[in-house]
Amino acid sequence: MAEQTKSAQVDAQKLDPNMSLTQTEDAGLRWLSPDRPPFRLSGFPWFGQDGLYRRLPSRPKHTLPTAVDQLANSTAGGQIAFRTNSARLSIRVALAGKANMYHMPATGQCGFDIYLGTPGDQQFFGVTRYDHTQQTYEAELFHFPHAEERHVTLNFPLYQGVEEVWIGVDPDADVYEPLPYRSAKKAIVYGTSITQGGCATRPGMAYTNIISRRIPIEFVNLGFSGNGRGEPEVARTIAEIEDPALLVLDYEANAVDTDLMRRTLPEFIRIYREAHPDVPILVLSKIQYARERFEPALLQKRLEMKQIEMDTVESYRSRGDTNVHFFDGGVLLGTDSYDECTVDGVHPTDLGFLRMADTLTPVFRELLKNEL
Q: What's this model's pTM, rounded to 2 decimal places?
């Protein structure tokens, strides 16, 4: 019998140059902070107050659940937009922690990605390539042979905090304000890990970011992984966000049982309505999980939850609040191969998020029609 040999470790970075990391050359770049004009910073409603890349206030008026308070440091949905004629663009980032997720790439958890083009015509160009064992990195985003004006949008990491970020341009380059949003108001989406963007391979593929490229207003992503549970303190804090155009409640997946949904959803809407009597509210039920075909209890729970959400919306509408709406999230992944749209049966892949965005875009457009 021939002697069997032990398999050798495969190092793709050595075997394929396209998989390897290259050193960035920042010599001569001018480094700018995006926290002041002409840059536009979006997705952080309390940045002007706290100066932090954080999705909720650092000193909230209402005591937040500990996990929600910590997850607010994840920068999901944050964006930097500007125009520049620089031929080169780089980024320096100091993260709050290292990449550590087993089912989500470091590019989605901790990376930035870049889109070029004006609102409505934005196209993905690249993503930060860095050593994911590190907590700080510098990455080149583009290096063109000629300088010309380009409209740039950068998406913040989905599942990590960002302590510092700097934008590097050619020393003689100009930086201008981006084209304005269609409206000064904001679309606010509250929910779960799926809302936050788990498990997109890069930030631009979270469904709120996809829709933001199609509907040119500011989106605020308030997905809190495992902890979107509809607490009244969270509702009161979200109600503080100024100039809302739409509130989406997408938290069913974290409501541990029907009793919690039955208690929290009517109260969440009531609290928000006190502050914003006319803003459209969309209640979005949960996506279909892959295991439902084999675990009938999961399907039954989703249908019971959906009924509670539908009944709550109908209750408000029957009392005259016709600006509360319901949409069945069970169709968001499609009816064909919906089970192929997640990484673990629960959290969407890029395909899943794209399907979600394709279905929700016309729904959002209709509810935002007064702002477009």
A: 0.94
Alpha helix ranges (H) inside 22-77: 47-50, 66-71
Tell me how crowded residue 66 is: count the other CB atoms within 10 A of its CB. 9
Residue 105, phi-psi category: left (phi > 0), alpha (psi -120 to 50), beta (remainder)? beta
Give domain status of residue 8, yes or no: no
Amino acid at 53: Y
Share of the chain above pLDDT 70, in %: 93
In the predicted structure, residue 242 carries a pLDDT above the cut 90: yes
15 has pLDDT over 60:
no
How many domains in the chain? 2
Same domain for 223 and 143 = no
Average pLDDT, stretch 20-41? 84
List, for residues 322-366, the tens digit of each pLDDT value. Answer: 999 999 999 999 988 999 999 999 999 999 999 999 999 999 999
Residue 52 and residue 199 in contact, taking contact as beta carbons nearer than 8 Å: no
Residues 114 and 138 both lie in one domain: yes
CATH code (residue 117):
2.60.120.260
DSSP-based three-state secondary structure for 289: coil
pLDDT averaged over every residue in the chain: 94
Q: Are residues 205 and 81 in the same domain?
A: no
CB atoms within 10 A of CB 252: 26
Give me the residues paired with residue 123 across strands. Answer: 116
Consecutive H or E run containing 124:
strand 123-127
Q: How far apart are CA 55 and CA 157, in angstroms?
A: 12
Cβ contacts of residue 121 below 8 Å, gap of 6+? none
Report how far residue 20's alpha carbon sits from residue 91's, in angstroms, rounded to the nearest whole number. Answer: 19
Backbone angles phi, psi at 235, to 5 degrees: -60, -45
